[in-house]
């Protein structure tokens, strides 16, 4: 990062800032992919647990309704 801050050349100059920019862009893309994959890995189980919870709540409601009808 210090190199990026101290380099005042243009992207096509010999100081190599184009390759630094390419490396930085590649790194950031990789970090974003990791972040969103990590986020998605937690959203799937959360969604699955919400579905299971909904099914269990519906079953409880059916059992309660059936118990009240039997009484």
Task: List key phrases describing it.
single chain, 2 helices, 0% strand, mainly alpha, 71 residues
Can you tell me about this structure?
It is a single chain. By secondary structure, the chain is mostly helical. Helices cover 83% and strands 0% of the residues. The protein has two helices and no strands. The chain has helices spanning 2-6, 17-70. The longest helix has 54 residues, at 17-70. It is rod-shaped.
In brief:
With 71 residues, the chain is an all-alpha fold. 83% of the residues lie in helices and 0% in strands.
Per-chain topology:
Blueprint (H helix, E strand, L loop, with lengths): L1 H5 L10 H54 L1
Q: Which class best fits the helix and strand makeup? A: mainly alpha
| Gap between N and C termini | 75 Å
Main sheet characteristics: none
Mean pLDDT: 75
Number of strands: 0
Q: H/E order of the elements? A: HH
Strand percentage lies at under 5%
Gross geometry: rod-shaped
How many DSSP helices?
A: 2
Number of domains: 1
Q: Ranges with pLDDT <50 over ≥5 residues?
A: 1-14
Rg over CA atoms, rounded to whole Å, is 28 Å
Share in helix:
over 70%
């Amino acid at each position: 990062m210090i190199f990026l801050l101290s380099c005042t050349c243009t992207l096509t100059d010999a100081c190599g800032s184009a390759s630094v920019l390419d490396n930085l862009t590649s790194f950031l893309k990789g970090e974003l992919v990791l972040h969103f994959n990590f986020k998605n890995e937690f959203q799937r189980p959360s969604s699955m647990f919400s579905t299971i919870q909904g099914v269990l709540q519906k079953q409880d409601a059916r059992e309660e309704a059936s118990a009240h009808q039997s009484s």
